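User: Need the bound-state model for flavin mononucleotide:
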Amino acid sequence: MTLVHIWQPDEEPELGTILENVWHLLGVGLRNRKHGFHLPVVATSTPDEGPDVRKVVLRGVDRAHRLLRFHSDARSSKIRQIEQNPRVAFAFYDAAEETQVRIQAQAKVHRSDDAANAAWQGTRLFSRRCYLAEGAPGSPNELPTSGLPNVFSDRNPTEEESRAGRANFAIVLSEIRRLDWLYLCHQGHRSARFTWDEAGKLTSTWVQP
Ligand SMILES: Cc1cc2nc3c(=O)[nH]c(=O)nc-3n(C[C@H](O)[C@H](O)[C@H](O)COP(=O)(O)O)c2cc1C
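Assistant: Bound-state model below.
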C-alpha cells in the first residue's frame, strides 16, 4: 500500500514520519513497475563534459545500510564515470504521490564479488540477454543494431548461453548521503532534507520548497 497524500495541512507530520514514508515509497518503487520510483534518473559527472543523466531500474533498497542498487553493462559510460568520480545523484518522482525525492550518494561498482554474483543469480534470462551484446553500449555502428547476436533477436538465451553475459554485468551500490523530499500540495508545497554524516548520524530539517 502506498501512502498517497501524506501531507495534511491540519495534521503536520513529524520529520521522522516523512523519512519513513520515503523508505516506504522506495520499497514500493522497487516492487511495483508502474510506480514512478521504479525508474529513477541517475546523474554522474564526466571529467570534461559536465553532468550525464539516464534512467535506470531500481533493483535494490537496503535501508539498514542506506544503499540503492541498480544494474548496468560493465562497459557502459556510466560505469566508467562512477569509477572516476563516485559521487552520484538520483531523482525519483511519482505523479500519484505528488512526491519527488532527490538523493546524493557515494556509489561503488561491483563486478565480481558476492554482491554482484548474488544480483546476477537473481536476474531473469530476459534481462541477461542485454549483457550478450557484442559491443559496448554507446559504441557507434553503421547500422541501427541492438548489438545482440542474431540468434537472440527473438528469444531469450538459455541459462547456459546467458553465462557469456556475466563478464559484462556490474551492479552499482550507492550509499545515501543526502535526501531531499518534496511534496506538491495545493496549500503550498512542503520539503525536508535528511543528511547523514560519515559516521551515519542523521540530521533532519524542514526546508522551504
Ligand atoms: C526505462 C529505462 C530503464 C533503463 N534501465 C537501465 C538500467 O537499469 N541500467 C542501465 O544501465 N541502463 C538502463 N537504461 C538505459 C540507460 O538509460 C542508458 O541509455 C544506457 O545505460 C547508457 O547509459 P550510459 O551511456 O550513461 O552508461 C534504461 C533506459 C530506460 C529508458
